[in-house]
Amino acid sequence: MVKAVKGRSAPKSIGKVMAASGLADKGVVLKPYDLDMNISDAAKNMDKFYRMQVVESKDKTKYWFALHYGRNGTAGQRQIKGPTDKSKAIKMMEQKFKQKSGKAWADRGSAGAGTANSAARGGKGHYELTARLKKAGAKFATKKGAVAISLMWDHKSKQQRNDLDLWVTAPSGEKIGFSHKMSRCKGVLDVDRRQDAAQPV
User: How many domains does the structure of the chain reveal?
Assistant: First the structure.
């Protein structure tokens, strides 16, 4: 992953009850049901954020599924379902996550799960890419920046492996790549998994 000074955040945990839900004074986030996810598909002009949480009331008797979504750069919209019981709130979040990511909630941390399905359903490979970056130890996966460029490819066949190189010209005019990993303007090659990796990125 080549990253310039600033960039958009990758999927991550939010931690606190999101302000957009209006539930901040009613309870706390039920772990691990807390997710901030971006889905991008340049071919379809899609660049959306989805923030999802299950919120548990302070007395642990009521539960809400909270969703904040929209195009990146906009205020977006919110959808709050509940109060309801714990199992229903969890089910709603898991269903929404699968609908948007192409993955089962149980497979959310697996880089290999749902890859073909993600591509077929239109742009949901973004979550696959983020999972690969995190697994590869990307240091900037949750940082913000102006430009973040990543490349992943298929290594399902052990007989055919490739090594693709990504070069990016930074604002300083320097080319960032495997032989020049950092520019004067602090652009950096963060991850370089090559032909020996089962899930290259």
Answer: 1
